[in-house]
Amino acid sequence: MPPKGKAAPKPKGSEANKPSSTSTSAPPPPASTTSTPSSVPSTSPSTVSERSQQRFDESRPNEAAREKSGLSSLAPAEQVAWISSQFARSSAARARLGTKAQRELWRHVNEASLPVRAPKTKPSPGSWGKDRAGQHIGGYTPARFDDRAAKRITLTALEIASRAFKDTRERARKGLLDPLSKEPVVLAENEIDQEKNRRRQMAALRRELYGQTMGQFEQDPEWDDVVPIPQDEPEMALAAIAYPASYAEAISYLRAVMQKKEYSPRCLRLTEHIISMNPAHYTVWLYRASNIFAMKLLIPDEIEWLNEVALEHLKNYQIWHHRHLLVDNYYPSIADDADKVSQFAASERAFLAAILAHDTKNYHVWSYRSYLVGKLGTWGADELAAVEAMITDDVRNNSAWSHRFFLVFSNPAHSTPGTAATDPDPAVPRDIVDRELQYAMVKTYLAPQNQSPWNYLKGVLAKGGRRLASVEAFAAEFVAGLGEGEEVEQVRSTHALDLLAEIYAEKREKEKADLALRRLAEKWDRIRVGYWEWRRKCLDVEG
Amino acid sequence: MIPDLFTQLPPVRDDLETDTSEAQDETVEACLPFLAGQDDLFEYNEHGVPRINREKHIKFLHNSLGRLPGGFVAADASRPWFLYWSLSALTMLGEDVSHYREAVAETARGMQNDTGGFGGGGRQLSHMATTYAVVLALALVGGEEAFEVIDRKAMWKWLCSLKQPDGGFQVCMGGEEDIRGAYCAAVIISLLNLPLGLTPESPAWTGDSSSNLFTGLARYVRRCQTFEGGISGQPDAEAHGAYAFCALGCLALLDNPRRIIPRYLNVPRLISWLSSRQYAPEGGFSGRTNKLVDGCYSHWVGGCFPLIEACLSPAASASAGQVDNSARAGLPPVSESLFSKEGLIRYILCCCQDQTKRGGLRDKPGRLSDAYHSCYVLSGLSSAQNQWVLADSDDDKSATGTAADPAWTVLPPLEEDVQIFDKRDRIRPIHPVYAIPDENQRAIRSYFLEKDSEGGFL
Ligand SMILES: [Zn+2]
């Protein structure tokens, strides 16, 4: 019979080539297993892999013995049964047999009660795949495996229910009628909550079963209508960031809503979410501003929210431009109400004090502050007092000194708009110039080597169009015995000596100026020797 | 071997303690061991200066161009900067970066918007700073494939839409107007040979051809000079080192620096402020009055000096008995240097190198290195090591109101005996305005110039 004749000589070639040692050595006494392969007592399996192996063996009589010792080790009847089973399972193989041979085959199949539908491939522990923890599923206990199967069924059921929800919602949105009740389809409020709950369960199951994370937005029924646009960077892109999944998802939804220019409460929440992960994302800030203006939201609410964000991200500067845009938008609505303006100015001042307490020289905060003064017109005593408090706190805080200069000399009530900061401005009243000179000098005494009040002093002199020599006596207080020998010469402030050099130059006292500069270069401020030498050359030009 | 200037506290100190003085004292304390040659990780030369650790820095910079871990999410809107910083630093260290050409071109393409300019990443709003960074990165890798990524026509329209009636530039649509915008716009326009005319959509459009992209820009820069003499980010703010470079760089692109800088800025006050930024014993520059030294100001402040010194230098024609251009400023030329190059080089080599396995350059001892500081510390080192001179060539031609093209040339290395650093530690010179090697700025400019002469722009 063809099955036998065909198969019999074939498989044994490899067996025959085996080293004689193995063939001569007593073959394992497989009789018990080989002769009655299907009668192996079905002890209850400890893992699903074992259970599957048992089922496989039951469907393939003699397989285990053949695999172990070769086909020829089987009894002839067993050989026929094995070969028949191979043909029975393969329609391609059967097709090659003649009609008669096929008939013969089926007889053997029937005689041996071989299962025609049997597991196709031999199971191996790895063939079950691994779970998310990297564990072979084949190693699960049957109970655990069945639990997993049940969860998969639960997940499928949830997915079907979720699709039904989406379908109902879509029909409700289109205003369709229910085919049975003929009533319009309505989505009940609690159905949305149920769906949210369902998505949470789905997310948990997907994570547990497959290690898949279901993003926050994918879980939210409210975002179902948005098709996220994922990052589409070329493989070779440089400095590409391995985004955390939550960021990547949020950004892909941002791209989608920005593309369709959507302005809505959910978009506002989306921007907040992204800002919490990356406050330096300028695009999302500008988009947030557009949302606020498009929805005409209350600016004070946004400012209140912004206060907290600013305190969390002290070094960020996009926050301050956002605030600038908010104030630009808000101010016209309160401009006619002096009370409201001063109220707003007071609350801003309080917040600025809080944030500057954390970072007293924050450049962007101070820049915003000068913008705010110009916008609200708060040039008065309150602002001056606030800055003075900061100078009292740290007399070396140059940001505070700069702001004071702006407050005093850019006040439109007594300055000429458009005057360069280093140029004189005749519109500034004398008493103000005097007051500011006095202020700088008093503060200088606290720490004469502090450059801030010296720069301020020079700035005030320039604004007031005063001669530098008007403060010669003051500057001279910090320098003694210049050029009179190492023992005698005393300099308590290099800035005083620098100013004296300028004063002497202004008075055409070239030699005294040159001496001051020389001493700065030689002893008191040597790192700036190149500059002091150049200043000495300037004396010749001024000649 | 180490002058006591760099190992001792300054001779004039106040007793009063405030937050500022405490931070300053801590910084000096942190720097002194490095300056005094007491760090075990270093090998010092006879001047007490360590060598530049090229290999480690190069490795650090290549890594900055690779895939960045999730913690870099905060940099998601500034990735073009990583390209520029890393490629620029690598170039200065002598690396050939042209093999990054295709990758830079591909990365840039994904960041370009149809409406012109480049964003911080794909589908981000075009921004002046990121566009500047992309254009420089493309110039650094060079080649037609890189240059052709840029949609110049869209770029020109986009710049027109950011030009403000007061002369300045917004940094992006709806964004702030500041001096970074002014400098970046001037660099982009000049490198890409963009036309200066305005589109009718520009906020600065006047209905005729009386104003263009450069109109009022120098006046805007002038409004940023403060009472201290330094430059603020926008009018009415505090003088800050980064903005000083932006101001001078911008002006130097608008016209011949000898003429335009004294015309728009109070030069003596500016020099006084710039010079005050250098501290001893640290040797490095601070960014503002009473703030701490920081390696990145080696470029932002240090990079101002070549421009200032050029503006003070007599034009070549003066020696031939003609009018001395510097007479406009009424100021003498500089003999050697306005600042202590030795101090800066010491600060950079002793304090700004991360000598651990990590490599890279940093703000100050105790801080982590990063690509930003690596770039600007090396830029500062480059300008301290190399001397640029401004030729007098086309002084009159640039009076036509178009962008001036003054010829900058770098002088051969100074005599060996005045150097405190090892000869092998010389960094490649970079152009004082574009902050990339001269040949790179020439290549991209002449590419577009040639293209436009064949009618390429429209
Ligand atoms: Zn820095």
Task: Please give a quick description of this structure.
The complex is a heterodimer of chains A (543) and B (458). Chain A is built from 26 helices and two strands.
Keywords:
heterodimer, A: 543 residues, mainly alpha, two-stranded antiparallel sheet, 2 strands, disordered N terminus, B: mainly alpha, two-stranded antiparallel ribbon, 1% strand, binds zinc ion, magnesium (chain A)
Strand count, sense and barrel status of the largest sheet of chain A are: 2 strands, antiparallel
Number of helical elements of chain B:
18
Rg of chain B, nearest Å:
22 Å
The helix tally of chain A amounts to 26
Number of domains of chain B: 1
Secondary-structure-based class of chain B equals mainly alpha
What portion of residues of chain B is helical? 40-55%
Basic shape of chain B: globular
Strands of chain B, total number: 2
CATH class of chain B: Mainly Alpha
Total count of strands of chain A: 2
Contiguous runs where pLDDT drops below 50 for at least 5 residues of chain B:
318-328, 396-404
Distance between the termini of chain A: 127 Å
Q: How would you write the strand order of the largest sheet of chain A?
A: 1-2
Largest sheet of chain B: 2 strands, antiparallel
Helix percentage range of chain A? 55-70%
Topology of chain B as a string of helices (H) and strands (E): HHHHHHHHHHHHHHHHHEEH
Spatial order of strands in the largest sheet of chain B? 1-2
Q: Any chance you could write out the topology, listing elements then pairs?
A:
The complex is a heterodimer of chains A (543) and B (458).
Chain A (H helix, E strand, L loop, with lengths): L1 H6 L4 H5 L3 H5 L6 H5 L12 H12 L3 H7 L6 H14 L1 H5 L3 H14 L29 H33 L14 H22 L34 H15 L5 H13 L4 H13 L4 H14 L5 H17 L3 H21 L4 H14 L4 H13 L4 H12 L20 H17 L4 H13 L8 H5 L2 E2 L9 E2 L2 H13 L3 H15 L4 H14 L1
Antiparallel strand pairs in A: 1-2
Helix pairs in contact in A: 7-9, 10-11, 12-13, 13-14, 14-16, 15-16, 16-18, 17-18, 18-20, 19-20, 20-22, 21-22, 24-25, 25-26
Chain B lengths: L18 H17 L18 H12 L13 H14 L8 H11 L16 H14 L2 H4 L4 H11 L16 H13 L25 H7 L17 H14 L2 H8 L2 H10 L20 H4 L3 H9 L3 H4 L21 H11 L19 H15 L2 E3 L17 E3 L27 H16 L5
Antiparallel strand pairs in B: 1-2
Bound molecules: zinc ion.
The site of zinc ion has 4 residues of chain B, from loops.
